[in-house]
Amino acid sequence: MLPWNYGFHWTPATMIFMGAFYTVLVVLATTVMYAMLRSRRVLAADETEDVKWHSDFHDLPSHDRACRHVLMGELSHRECPNAFDCRKCEQHARIVERHPVRQPNETEEEILGMSFPLDRYYHRGHAWAHPEADGTMTVGLDELGSRLLGVPDAMELPPPGTRLQVNGTAFRMRTHGADVRVLSPVDGEVVETGGAGRAWYLKVKPLAGGFDVRHLLRGAEVHAWLMREMERLQLTLSAEGAMSPTLADGGVPVADIGAGYPEADWDAVCGEMFLEP
Amino acid sequence: MDREFIARGVKRCSTPKFLLWTLPWIGLLAFGLYAAALCLIKGLNQTNMDNRFAFGLWIFLDLTVIALGAGAFFTGFLLYILKLDELRAVINSAVVIGLVCYSGAMGVLAVDVGQPLRFWFTFWYPNVHSMLTEVTFCITCYLTVLVVEYLPIVLRNRKLRQVPQFLVFEFELHKLIFVLAGVGTFLSFFHQGSLGGLYGVLRGRPFAFREGLAVWPTTFFLFILSAAAVGPSFILLTTWLAEKISRKRLVKPRVLELLGRISGLLLAVYVIAKSVDTLVWINRTSPETGFQAWQYYSWQPFGTWILLAEIVLFGLAPALILLTARLRARRGWLVSAAAMACLGVALNRFVMTVQTLAVPTLSFDRFLSYTPSWQESGTFLAVVAYGVLVYSFSFRYLQLFPEERELRFEAEQTEELPVMAGEIDPAGRY
Amino acid sequence: MISEKNPVKAARYGMTIDLDRCNGCGACMVACAVENNVPPAHAGANDRKGLTWIRVYKVDNGAEYPDRRSVFVPVLCQQCNKDTPCVHVCPQQAVDLDPATGIVGQMPERCLGCRYCMAACPYHARYFNWWDPAWPAGMEKTLNPDVAPRMRGVVEKCNFCHGRWHAARERAAAAGKPNTEPVTYTPACAEACPTGALQFGDLNDPASLPAQAAKNPDAFRMLEKLGTEPKIYYRSKRDWVREIASAPKPGAGSRVASAPTPKEQAHG
After folding, report:
1. What number of C-beta contacts closer than 8 Å exist between B and C?
2. Residue B41, SS3?
3. Neighbours of chain A (3+ CB pairs under 8 A)
4. Which terminal CB of chain A, N or C, has fewer other CB atoms within 10 Å?
């Protein structure tokens, strides 16, 4: 095994054999150690949320990863290669240049009985971001998200001073047996928490300069996206055991959808809708 | 009860039902461990092996499961190195199968050798000319690779993932998976081959002895080919079984068909190579040692039927079926052909182990037979039970089949027509 | 093992076995067992699980009465000199072909018990310890202190009474002879043989009996075509006896070695 063992023969065969063996061991050990070192670095640099989102995104079924421009009909079929971070996407930049998003005339969009004010930016995880006059953004949960969660049993809001990352965890909600995290629409630092009683959950100030909102949905995109979300909700409800007719009358989702389907696996439904596989 | 440990978006049976499923396998495992313990405590006289049948059921089954477990390295090679992305649907399952096959084989080997505590001698005083040294080194390294490949699958469990260290480590390790796949392929090439080389170098057993290409006998390459051919077939079989037992659709049909096609292709190449090798052996290699090839098949029950069964019935036939697209599309034909291919490889390993030792070498020898004792069978059944249990736990708590979620939704989509607001007829009809 | 730094005049110990003289008495088998501390067979042992470093087979010519003839063939480790199958295959180098003596030595202390060497040996000269060795009370007084008994789970075989070779070397050293000369000694089987059918010697020494016998046209070795160059030379004037050294031919008469036990008859 080792050159100084009695009986070790320095033949070409031995050297090739032992050489191959030691090389394999070294490669294996190096790979594992390299992964561990990189992990340490990621943990130290507080990039865990980024990794968590990428990991979650990887597990989403392909129909949940459709590019926003497929929603708008600009592309026929594309899976997002950037984990919904359109800020980095060249394709997005090109399309937006050629087809800027149309802003509808109304100030508010009423879709299926739910109100979606158009002065807000919407995140695909059902959070919204609204630019305030003092340069901060307020972050809240859109109507569909609220109705999915109903009256939450518990809410975990980050304390002021917490750093938020785009597609990282903004806050956690627990209801009807579901335990979901809501994705943050913006990068920034929490200055104030809201919650029940206030129209928003978090007030966020930017880290440096202003907010980059290229990755958020706005204007005419919201309607197309909502339609898709209702379709997804329909599928999820029937897949997760909802027995009563699921929105088959084209009706408006009630204020607490979960209460209407007690037999459904609400944790799985929320996991699907809030993009937490 | 254990809902938190099971991934969202997939359905698993209730906890009591799952425990009920594991009970008989745990029982079998316990029985098998008792049989193995007898062999370890009382000695190998508990088996029916003897001085003439130095290798028996255990070695034959070890070689078979290692060949069947080749799906792990081969699928990894096809996915991460040749970039056949459809196989992402089965790679996790393949890794678990591989882990189970190799760790089971190592467990049986620990009981099979007379002095298991001396296992490290092979590493300390290796004989680089011996095929068995090669096998030992490679399989030990490869088992390590499989454990390192299984680790990310375990760490992706819903509950374990919540630990940030596990989440990040898994993420980083997965980026380097291609290195593991490459190392796994390199190691597998050598140990699958060396297992063949085990028999091909036996100068004293002209039934098994083959001429060489470079330093390796032809059986080295034949075993690699047959293992690579049957690996995808076994993945196919186990996936189909998992679908049947769990009553869920786990992979898209085209994934199984792809596995079948790869298997068929390699099986066809193997059959050609094996036929050429057999002809050379019959006409040159064996007669040169003074042993006429026909005589091996005159000792019943090992007639020429066994050679034909191995090459034609369980070799050529499944190869042709798997290469025919029309038949591949039919689940019954696909699964049957895969099963036949696996049986063919089992038969090949059986012939090389048992027939080699049964056939006389000295003119005053007799043809010998051997039946495994219950302790031997029990030990092997322990491995089967262990495999089923590990796979069952992995299936329940880990994501073995990434396409499962998608297929659930596809099933919903075809079953119910989703109704979108705005498409409603004002009269309220659909 | 002799170190490469100390050149010796190599011996090539071999044996000649005259099959026309062997009467099947089995004294060689007993002497071997006594010399090498081979334990008595366990109660559960059968014909195929015993330890018989040298084993005498009875082989018939296959003819019916009155033409039926028998020969007794002692088979021991053939000490293959070329491409020794067992040396080649042992994964932890527990077997070696000693270049100074030509003896294929087995190290039971290093043996893992994988039995690969047993599969490799065409002469079935290797035996596995299926049981722990046990001697009946009082029999331990007959043990030979110069030979280590083997534990359960390892392979053992004839090593040309290596202990006696060591003793002969010590005697030669004590007598002041240079240690580069090969020594003369006799293994237990050859010593015990009453008819002198077994003769041991140095094949490199042209005066020794095995060296002379090797040149005899009546001499043959088992399975010569395998190319293992065994160092056991058998002799017989009878043609049909010389035939037994070649490969088996099914149906060529019932050249069955020793009567099968009822258990084996059942298995066929």
Report:
1. 197
2. helix
3. B
4. N
Size of interface A-B (CB pairs under 8 A): 130
> Chain C: nearest CA to B201, how far in angstroms?
8
Average pLDDT over residues B141-167: 95
| B423 contacts in chain A (CB < 8 Å) | 250
Residue with the two structure tokens 């690579």 = B228
Contact B422 A267 (CB under 8 A): no
Q: Note whether A153 contacts B: Cβ–Cβ < 8 A.
A: no
The pair of structure tokens assigned to A198 is 């206030």
Say which range, A217-221, B98-102, B342-346, has the weakest mean pLDDT.
Answer: A217-221
C107-124 pLDDT, tens digit each: 999 999 999 999 999 999
Per the structure, the count of domains in chain A is 1
> Strands, E, within B133-175: which ranges?
none
Which spans in B209-330 are helix H? 218-246, 253-280, 286-288, 293-296, 304-308, 317-323, 325-328
Q: In this structure, which amino acid lies at residue C55?
A: R
Q: Taking a C-beta distance cutoff of 8 angstroms, is the pair B27, B20 a contact? A: no
Would you tell me which CATH number, out of the four given (3.10.20.340, 3.40.50.2300, 3.30.70.20, 3.40.50.880), belongs to the domain C13-267? Answer: 3.30.70.20
Question: Which parts of B100-254 are beta strand (E)?
Answer: 212-213, 216-217
Alpha helices in chain A (DSSP H): 12-44, 48-59, 68-71, 90-98, 143-149, 220-239, 257-260, 266-273
* Predicted local confidence at residue A152, as pLDDT: 84
Has residue A6 been placed in a domain?
A: no
Give pLDDT, residue B299: 83
Domain boundaries, chain C: 13-267
Q: Hey, what are A250's tokens?
A: 């084209």
Query: B183 CA to chain C: closest CA distance, Å?
Result: 23
Cβ contacts of residue B403 below 8 Å, gap of 6+?
Answer: B89, B250, B251, B252, B255
The answer to whether the CB of B380 falls within 8 A of the CB of B33 is: no
Q: Give me the residue from A36, A61, A267 closest to B169, CB to CB.
A: A36
Cβ B235 vs Cβ B75: under 8 Å: yes
Q: Give dist(CA B138, CA B195) in Å, integer.
A: 11
Quick check: is A263 in a domain?
Answer: no
